[in-house]
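Render Diaminopimelate decarboxylase in 3D.
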Amino acid sequence: MKPEVLQQLATEFGSPLYVYDAEKIAFQYNRLQNAFSKVERFKVHYAVKALSNVSVLKYLKSLGSGLDTVSLQEVQLGLHAGVAPNDIIYTPNGVSMEEIEEVAQLGVQINIDNLSILEQFGTKHPNIPVCIRINPHVMAGGNANISVGHIDSKFGISIHQLPHILRIIENTKMHINGIHMHTGSDILDVEVFLYAAEILFETAKNFTALDFIDFGSGFKVPYKKGDIETNVEEFGRKLTKRFLTFEKEYGRPLTLAFEPGKFLVSEAGYFLAKVNVVKQTTSTVFAGIDSGFNHLIRPMLYGSQHHIENISNPKGKERYYSVVGYICETDTFASNRRITEIHEGDILCFRNAGAYCFSMASNYNSRLKPAEVLWKDGKGHLIRERETFDDILKNQVMIEV
């Protein structure tokens, strides 16, 4: 989006502000669809945890996407947005049996990653189709916190525990209709992903009535100029060829599914914040903004980099700044970053703010969460109102003391 449009939205809706470009979301969705165009049964389930605003979910539904959910509440959000239950897959981790059963009653596809829960669910509900999440023991991902397919991960059932899985299925006579994996996020090496996929194909041979194979996601997106990203087109060609061969060998039509989150919405997102103060110290020039890690925690949590530009002075002379927030802890968004000259009152724009940004926001320091806007058809649509102090108090109960 153009700096002048973002500046206009900051003026209209205030700051801090999240803005999402619907056109970019559609571009990424179509890019993935085109990469697997030769697969007759191809399905995208958008990972709700990346950005869970109901208007975004409704928009993705209009593109043809289903949803990948990890909680009862995400399932409920999807249903509220009008997504059909059979277009939603539910992949929890460490939740109660009661929650899984509640979701199952909604008609959503259940995906289980725990031997104990698999046996309990199969014993009580043998006729409800279940997908199994396999841990292929492949280390992939750009950060230890987002690499979830390695041997020490809490996610998935170990590939080495396949005999246990098969014994549970034999004993319960439960119906397994899908098999799933997710190795991690920010995967750079297509060959590593294909290696993990090969493990999943071998595993699938042990199940005779599968309807789909779900390869998770984890595609790397660029975070700065010249940054590398997953070559989705190359990956699509290679996996399509292997999948079609396996489908013939399997002797039954199969759906190839993915669960992209960051890939679909990260680059579509912009976070706008106003500069409250420019502070010169003995060694650093700080640009302090009207936000903090209560609104955007990724740089502090993952060490992720978000390109920052001064949209109030896009053609100014570049200087070095450390961009920091107003939280009463160290919340540094960028250290010694080259940004066009900053003045108090300027609006800074953080790129790649669509995924795991607002969805991880909090009220730390009793600060209010920002508004969200969807830029669609040349207009900014408010899709979440800015919080007020009443929202902070809403569920608090004051007792007599």
